[in-house]
Design a protein that fits this description.
The protein has 185 residues and is α+β, with helices and mostly antiparallel strands. The protein contains six helices and eight strands, in the order ααββββββαββααα. It has one domain: Jelly Rolls. 26% of the residues lie in helices and 25% in strands. Strand 4 and strand 5 form a beta hairpin. Bound molecules: 2-oxoglutaric acid and fe (ii) ion (FE2).
Amino acid sequence: MVAQLQKLVVRMLLESYGIRTDKYDAHSDSTTYLMRLLKYRRSKGETNLGFKGHTDKSFVSILHQNQVNGLEVRLNDGEWVYYQPSSSSSFAVIAGDVIMAWSNDRIKSCYHRVMVEGEEVRYAVGLFSFLTAIVEAPEELVDEDHPLLYKPFYNQDLLDFYVKNNSQNKGDTNMVKAYCGTSML
Ligand SMILES: O=C(O)CCC(=O)C(=O)O
Ligand SMILES: [Fe+2]
Protein backbone atom coordinates (compact mmCIF):
# COMPACT_ATOMS: atom_id res chain seq x y z
CA MET A 1 0.00 0.00 0.00
CA VAL A 2 1.44 3.38 -1.01
CA ALA A 3 0.18 5.04 2.19
CA GLN A 4 2.38 2.57 4.10
CA LEU A 5 5.37 3.75 2.10
CA GLN A 6 4.48 7.35 2.94
CA LYS A 7 4.32 6.47 6.65
CA LEU A 8 7.67 4.69 6.48
CA VAL A 9 9.32 7.67 4.77
CA VAL A 10 7.93 10.08 7.38
CA ARG A 11 9.04 7.83 10.25
CA MET A 12 12.56 7.69 8.77
CA LEU A 13 12.60 11.47 8.43
CA LEU A 14 11.49 12.05 12.02
CA GLU A 15 14.14 9.63 13.27
CA SER A 16 16.89 11.13 11.13
CA TYR A 17 16.16 14.60 12.54
CA GLY A 18 16.14 13.29 16.11
CA ILE A 19 12.46 14.09 16.62
CA ARG A 20 10.77 12.26 19.49
CA THR A 21 9.21 9.17 17.96
CA ASP A 22 6.17 9.40 20.24
CA LYS A 23 5.18 12.34 18.02
CA TYR A 24 4.98 9.97 15.10
CA ASP A 25 1.53 8.52 15.92
CA ALA A 26 -0.09 11.94 16.25
CA HIS A 27 1.48 12.94 12.96
CA SER A 28 0.31 9.76 11.28
CA ASP A 29 -3.24 10.12 12.69
CA SER A 30 -3.55 13.61 11.22
CA THR A 31 -2.47 12.59 7.73
CA THR A 32 -5.01 12.46 4.91
CA TYR A 33 -4.44 11.41 1.35
CA LEU A 34 -5.49 12.35 -2.14
CA MET A 35 -4.85 10.00 -5.00
CA ARG A 36 -4.71 11.30 -8.55
CA LEU A 37 -4.31 9.51 -11.84
CA LEU A 38 -2.81 11.56 -14.66
CA LYS A 39 -2.79 10.82 -18.36
CA TYR A 40 -0.50 12.65 -20.76
CA ARG A 41 -0.84 12.35 -24.49
CA ARG A 42 1.11 14.50 -26.89
CA SER A 43 -0.51 15.31 -30.21
CA LYS A 44 1.61 16.30 -33.19
CA GLY A 45 2.63 19.95 -33.13
CA GLU A 46 1.93 20.35 -29.42
CA THR A 47 4.50 21.51 -26.89
CA ASN A 48 6.18 18.73 -24.97
CA LEU A 49 5.47 20.38 -21.62
CA GLY A 50 3.05 18.01 -19.89
CA PHE A 51 2.94 19.72 -16.48
CA LYS A 52 4.63 23.05 -15.90
CA GLY A 53 7.22 23.57 -13.17
CA HIS A 54 5.72 23.67 -9.68
CA THR A 55 6.11 22.54 -6.09
CA ASP A 56 3.37 20.38 -4.59
CA LYS A 57 1.24 21.88 -1.82
CA SER A 58 1.29 18.53 -0.04
CA PHE A 59 3.35 17.24 2.87
CA VAL A 60 4.92 14.63 0.63
CA SER A 61 3.84 13.18 -2.72
CA ILE A 62 4.58 9.68 -3.91
CA LEU A 63 4.61 9.21 -7.67
CA HIS A 64 4.65 6.21 -9.91
CA GLN A 65 4.72 6.37 -13.71
CA ASN A 66 4.21 3.80 -16.46
CA GLN A 67 7.08 2.89 -18.81
CA VAL A 68 6.93 6.39 -20.34
CA ASN A 69 9.28 8.64 -18.37
CA GLY A 70 8.88 12.40 -18.16
CA LEU A 71 9.28 13.60 -14.59
CA GLU A 72 12.07 16.16 -14.19
CA VAL A 73 13.42 17.79 -11.04
CA ARG A 74 15.09 21.21 -10.92
CA LEU A 75 18.34 21.42 -8.97
CA ASN A 76 19.45 24.47 -6.96
CA ASP A 77 21.59 25.72 -9.85
CA GLY A 78 18.55 25.68 -12.16
CA GLU A 79 19.54 22.55 -14.08
CA TRP A 80 16.68 20.14 -14.88
CA VAL A 81 17.41 16.49 -14.12
CA TYR A 82 15.48 13.68 -15.69
CA TYR A 83 14.01 11.16 -13.22
CA GLN A 84 14.99 7.68 -14.31
CA PRO A 85 13.22 5.04 -12.18
CA SER A 86 15.53 2.18 -11.24
CA SER A 87 12.80 -0.37 -11.99
CA SER A 88 9.24 -0.53 -13.31
CA SER A 89 8.01 -0.76 -9.72
CA SER A 90 9.88 2.34 -8.45
CA PHE A 91 8.19 5.20 -6.65
CA ALA A 92 9.47 8.77 -6.45
CA VAL A 93 9.01 10.58 -3.12
CA ILE A 94 8.67 14.34 -3.59
CA ALA A 95 8.86 16.84 -0.72
CA GLY A 96 5.99 19.32 -0.79
CA ASP A 97 5.61 22.87 0.57
CA VAL A 98 4.04 21.62 3.81
CA ILE A 99 7.02 19.49 4.80
CA MET A 100 9.26 22.45 3.96
CA ALA A 101 7.40 24.68 6.43
CA TRP A 102 7.02 21.89 9.00
CA SER A 103 10.77 21.12 8.84
CA ASN A 104 11.66 24.83 9.20
CA ASP A 105 13.32 24.69 5.76
CA ARG A 106 15.54 21.68 6.60
CA ILE A 107 13.76 19.86 3.76
CA LYS A 108 13.18 22.04 0.70
CA SER A 109 10.14 21.42 -1.46
CA CYS A 110 11.03 19.89 -4.78
CA TYR A 111 10.45 21.96 -7.92
CA HIS A 112 9.44 19.57 -10.70
CA ARG A 113 7.70 19.33 -14.07
CA VAL A 114 6.68 16.73 -16.62
CA MET A 115 7.97 16.67 -20.20
CA VAL A 116 6.32 14.36 -22.71
CA GLU A 117 8.77 13.57 -25.48
CA GLY A 118 7.18 10.89 -27.66
CA GLU A 119 3.72 10.01 -28.92
CA GLU A 120 3.27 7.22 -26.38
CA VAL A 121 0.65 7.78 -23.68
CA ARG A 122 2.10 8.45 -20.25
CA TYR A 123 0.23 7.55 -17.07
CA ALA A 124 1.25 8.58 -13.60
CA VAL A 125 -0.38 7.95 -10.27
CA GLY A 126 0.29 10.22 -7.33
CA LEU A 127 -0.54 9.84 -3.65
CA PHE A 128 -0.48 13.27 -2.04
CA SER A 129 -0.44 13.48 1.75
CA PHE A 130 -1.84 16.42 3.73
CA LEU A 131 -2.10 17.21 7.43
CA THR A 132 -5.36 17.92 9.26
CA ALA A 133 -3.69 19.06 12.51
CA ILE A 134 -2.02 22.44 12.75
CA VAL A 135 1.34 22.44 10.93
CA GLU A 136 4.18 23.71 13.10
CA ALA A 137 7.86 22.93 13.28
CA PRO A 138 8.78 20.43 16.02
CA GLU A 139 10.85 22.00 18.81
CA GLU A 140 13.84 19.87 17.79
CA LEU A 141 14.06 21.83 14.53
CA VAL A 142 13.95 25.32 16.02
CA ASP A 143 16.88 26.87 17.90
CA GLU A 144 19.13 29.93 17.85
CA ASP A 145 20.80 28.86 14.64
CA HIS A 146 17.47 27.90 13.08
CA PRO A 147 14.87 30.51 14.09
CA LEU A 148 11.25 29.72 13.31
CA LEU A 149 10.62 30.56 9.64
CA TYR A 150 6.88 29.83 9.38
CA LYS A 151 3.95 30.69 11.60
CA PRO A 152 1.80 27.64 12.48
CA PHE A 153 -0.91 27.13 9.86
CA TYR A 154 -3.51 24.71 8.60
CA ASN A 155 -2.74 22.81 5.43
CA GLN A 156 -6.26 23.45 4.11
CA ASP A 157 -5.85 27.22 4.61
CA LEU A 158 -2.64 27.10 2.57
CA LEU A 159 -4.54 25.31 -0.21
CA ASP A 160 -7.29 27.97 -0.09
CA PHE A 161 -4.65 30.72 -0.23
CA TYR A 162 -3.04 28.99 -3.17
CA VAL A 163 -6.34 28.73 -5.07
CA LYS A 164 -7.14 32.43 -4.43
CA ASN A 165 -3.70 33.60 -5.56
CA ASN A 166 -3.26 31.01 -8.21
CA SER A 167 -3.55 33.02 -11.41
CA GLN A 168 -0.21 34.82 -11.36
CA ASN A 169 1.67 32.66 -8.93
CA LYS A 170 1.15 29.11 -10.14
CA GLY A 171 4.49 27.37 -9.76
CA ASP A 172 5.92 29.95 -7.37
CA THR A 173 8.18 28.06 -4.97
CA ASN A 174 7.60 30.64 -2.25
CA MET A 175 3.80 30.39 -1.96
CA VAL A 176 4.10 28.98 1.56
CA LYS A 177 6.52 31.76 2.54
CA ALA A 178 4.09 34.34 1.17
CA TYR A 179 1.32 32.70 3.22
CA CYS A 180 2.94 32.19 6.60
CA GLY A 181 6.64 33.03 6.42
CA THR A 182 7.72 34.81 9.62
CA SER A 183 9.69 37.37 7.59
CA MET A 184 6.29 38.59 6.29
CA LEU A 185 5.22 39.59 9.82
O1 LIG B 1 3.05 13.08 -13.69
C1 LIG B 1 3.92 13.12 -12.82
O2 LIG B 1 4.84 12.28 -12.77
C2 LIG B 1 3.92 14.21 -11.78
C3 LIG B 1 2.61 14.90 -11.60
C4 LIG B 1 2.73 16.03 -10.64
O3 LIG B 1 3.75 16.66 -10.48
C5 LIG B 1 1.55 16.42 -9.81
O4 LIG B 1 0.48 15.85 -9.99
O5 LIG B 1 1.70 17.30 -8.93
FE1 LIG C 1 3.66 17.80 -8.68
